[in-house]
Design a protein that fits this description.
6 helices; eight-stranded mixed beta sheet; alpha/beta; LRC18 protein; repeat; 8 strands; Leucine-rich repeat, LRR (right-handed beta-alpha superhelix)
Length: about 260
């Protein structure tokens, strides 16, 4: 007996693809083939390679071919919620790409092409819900990147070259097994920049403004004095003994 074949999936014809082209809000042409039950990349869409946006999300794709490089006008590429285990190196040729979503796939760090760092105009990159155990430092070359999703992976750290990208405003790295648990919150909301800060001396303030500032400062001081400082080692006298359910599984939940 031969190998059991996987689902064939829906066959996309050129006519179907042409009927799936939509005009996006900014006037671009978007080829929307999401939720079509596609298992293999439809070769016929290579004849529509002049589209500005391509949506292949929520399908069953395992591979994107090297021929993706024919979509040179592509600005927006959505591949999320497939079964991709790798990406082609030619994805780095899509120099106009500013949005790339490859969330919820089966990508590993080993199969993440280094050529991603060639996408110099990329603004949004979503790598969440994959199997990444590290992030290549080379992604620090994406100087235009504003949003980066790394949530729900196997990351233990994030390279400084990525965290300190000059235009990065949003970094989501929730639910990763970071080595330093104290720093985990830092990755969730690490990009906190003060837009404008004005400092003046008291002598430069008018009487009413000075009084307002002094009143606010007094309120803060009173608040600090009334709130007790939390104990470094919180005590939970009623939780000294685990309940019966926890006892049965204590080897699983006990911190080593």
């Amino acid at each position: 007996k031969g190998k059991a074949k996987g689902p064939k999936g829906k066959k996309i014809t050129l006519k179907t693809a042409k009927n799936s082209i939509r005009i996006s809000f900014d006037g671009g042409r978007r080829l929307d083939l999401s939720k079509m039950g596609i298992t293999t990349f439809p070769k016929c869409i290579l004849k529509l390679a002049d589209v500005d946006e391509l949506d292949l999300s929520r399908n069953m794709l395992k591979k994107i071919p090297n021929s993706i490089e024919k979509f040179q006008k592509l600005r927006w590429l959505d591949l999320h919620s497939n079964q991709l285990e790798e990406l082609p190196k030619t994805i780095g040729t899509l120099q106009n790409l500013f949005y790339l979503n490859i969330c919820n796939n089966k990508l590993t760090t080993k199969n993440l092409p280094e050529e991603l760092n060639l996408l110099k105009n990329l603004r949004i990159l979503n790598l969440g819900l994959n199997c990444l155990d590290s992030i290549p430092t080379s992604l620090g070359a994406l100087k235009e990147l504003k949003e980066l999703g790394l949530f729900d992976n196997c990351l233990t750290s994030i390279p400084n070259s990525v965290k300190k990208l000059p235009k990065l405003k949003k970094l989501n790295a929730e639910r990763n097994p970071f080595l330093d648990s104290i720093k985990k919150e830092e990755y969730v909301d690490s990009i906190k920049r003060i837009e404008t800060l004005y400092l003046v001396q008291e002598k430069d303030l008018c009487c009413s403004c000075l009084k307002t500032c002094q009143d606010e400062r007094d309120k803060l001081n009173k608040l600090k004095n009334t709130i007790p400082s939390p104990s470094k080692k919180p005590s939970f006298p009623l939780l000294l003994t685990p309940n019966s359910t926890a006892k049965d599984n204590q080897e699983q939940w006990r911190l080593k």
